Amino acid sequence: MTQPLLANKVAVVTGAAQGIGQEIARALHDQGARVVLADLDGDAAQRAAAEIDGGKGNCSGVACDVTSEEQVRALVEGAVGEHGHLDVFVNNAGITRDKSLRKMSVADFDAVITVHLRGTWLGVREASAVMREQKSGSIVNISSLSGKSGNPGQTNYSAAKAGIVGLTKAAAKEVAHHNIRINAIQPGLIRTPMTAAMSPEVFAEREAAVPMKRAGEPAEVAGAVVFLASELSSYITGSVIEVGGGRYM
């Protein structure tokens, strides 16, 4: 029997209680990793972990505010303390506060920038500090095609997701000589609770703009994460993979 791609690996996924984050955690677990699911809603993270793992002890859920330096550090230290090492860290946590320029408040802008950019930066910094000592590790940052093309009503979100690409490339250059790889994924239109809130007309319009003529599934984003987390991508760093059905190519 072929060994799973991530056998004996330890992974942390932020924003993992639902949607794309939960599917990423599921895919990493299915490939043999022990996974820590982190989310602002710790109870939901624990429920997601139990659902994925069936109570076997290979998944755990914890509360974490990714904007807090202390909590992100505690998340990493807790994973290492429980499992002995950290091999994969996925910065997935995010929020939206969509409004037009005229209606968007400074608080709306700052909230989105802080969760996405500061949260990702803290995850990269804390995870890479551990991986530097191990001389190995893979960090995957979840950006968005909104950061490539820009979406009306998302000046905050598009700016944050574009910033994640720059952060990814700069950090990848800093730590590559320690055998740490840092890459980003840009999902397009994916069926999640967030896109389910769109009106059917808007969703259909956006789906029609995708060359593959369909929305993606969270598992399809998770598959790209598994690839970047595994040794299949051992010579890939500072890269951005678009998972968008060909949109904006």
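(the above was protein one; protein two follows)
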Amino acid sequence: MTAAGRAVLDPATGRTVTHVPDTDASGVAAAVARARTAFDKGWADTSPAQRSRLLRELLREDRTELAALERTSTGKPTARALGEVDFAAQVVDWFAAAARYPVGETHPAGPGMRTYTDRVPVGVCAAIAPNNYPLLLAVWKIAAALAHGNTVVVKPAPETPLSIRRLAERAGDVLPDGVLTAVYGGAATGRLLCDQPAVGMVSFTGSTAAGREVARRCADGLKPVSLELGGKSPVVVFRDADLDAAARAVVTGFTGNTGQVCVAGSRLVVDRAVHEEFVGRVAALAAALEVGRPADPGTDLGPLISRAAADRTAEVVAQAAERGARVILPPGRSSVLHDLDGGFFVHPAIVDRAPLDSRAWREEIFAPVLSVASFATDDEALALAHDTAYGLSASVWTSDAHRAERFARTLRAGMVWVNTWGDTEETVSVGGLGQSGYGRELGLHAVDGYTRPRAVWVAHRPGR
């Protein structure tokens, strides 16, 4: 890091776009203090209607600018970046409406007494966002927290601060001072934020290893945390499935956002009777995807976030091949790495018959790599699906209604898709099980993370 700050790279070229200085300890403390002052001076007491109106202003403008910033720092194709900004706006609209939803209950009580429960905001919320969906996943946290009366200090990933910096600037024009502020930097900045006594809760999205550290640091202060962590999600395909639809979903599942998705369907568990046929369909569809420059309208897959990510992907695939797996690359390609403009590009890779103790099968690679194993029975399919410490998502494809219900009921994952993959709406709460974390984003259950229930007894009989 230079005196000008931490370099922000364009992953499509490897070149430096700008520098953003890390926020030091005094800067983090000042941001949290501003947020605490804003909370104490009345943001929590702002009427739900007023909070709703202000929230809607956050993303009303800047769509094109925000998408361009996302494309620059992540390498996303333009259409994908625009779509994510639009989804973020939908999330803001949802929570702007949710700010006015009724909460709490009235309980039976004797004469002269009214008893009820309500929910109160936790105060200052720290939102720590990842680099794969910098704006969108930060907005999931910010919108929910602000709608329910909290103030927020957000820390974007060090690789992708640009869209959050713009959002924080916009918040300075729309919201009262201190309601939404941003700090910048890597793990050290995150640790400083977690350690601030005035932070009431921490919402973190990122790797399981980093999530463990967040939970440990927050434990001393008894701060609640919401953790949306890694995944190694299975897609289970039976011989009686619509194989064409399943193949399209599998390709979307492991290549979407160049594989940099926590719910990526990175493990294919396929019926042995159709193994070769189905893998062939998937390989043909994956080979047709265009790896290229983000600004090119024909590009399907942009670069990975860093050179280290691309090199790690090549290493994992090579290790699987050395151990006997069949690696399928697009025709004419001998390496997963793709040399283009100095960027961090990779081709989609299928690791067929991956050893079950290999990194390709066990680790979250965060790249367009699909590991494949086959099964002969339903029980074997379930065992393979559950052969992971993660529990973020799973998908099953079958035309048998009984089997679909059984797998929907039995699969240990926070999100289960039957004969579909990847559906996500702002109205539905999502999150993981096991090493994929705890807490829920989006939907009605987000309120559980950003508020606390409170019991109230009001005596109103004269003389009591």
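Reviewer note on protein two: The chain has a mean pLDDT of 96.
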